[in-house]
Amino acid sequence: MLGVVEVERSTYYAHVNKAEKKPLHRVGRPAPGYSYNTNGNPVSDEQICEWLMELLAGEGAAFGYRKLTVLLKRRHQLVINKKKVYRLCKRLEVLRPQRKLKMKHPRRLANNRVITGSNQLWETDIKYGWIAGVRRFFFIMCILDVFDRAIISYHLGLTCEAKHLVQITQEALMKRQLFHNQRRRSRLYAQIMVRNSSTTCLKMLAIRLK
Description:
210 residues; five-stranded mixed sheet; three-stranded antiparallel sheet; 6 helices; disordered C terminus
């Protein structure tokens, strides 16, 4: 029959074996129902649940499963991990609601103007650090977009001068494609806010694009 329809035997039996295979449902090993203490004696899960309820009725009322695991190890010398304590707490329905994390650095836009998109307001920040081996300072100056908080361009070196600010401003304008080079030499004036730890100054920079 296979010779008549010109089908290889390996192709036919590979298709048949593939159709007969049943999907495997992988499951973990069943829970043993007990744990051990440091002396090697088994302790049933029912006893551990009673200890958990006692802790929750007392000083551990506000504790989560991680701290309950530590208390079980200290008080009853159990060899148990946080995963099993989580499973037992879930069975007892005593899990604490998961806390919501608050952002330490909330997003803040400019207070003196309305920013609705990128490339409407940039700001420059200068920071410095100490190189122990060379025993001198290094400086990093970057231009950030206030709206999307992206670092558009930066300068990193042992000095930080006005020419470096002009250089990274040119790079930032080219990256964001904010200039129109209609002539071979066009003059562009960019207004940049330079913020320092003690003073805030507004500078008008004349940038020559070639």
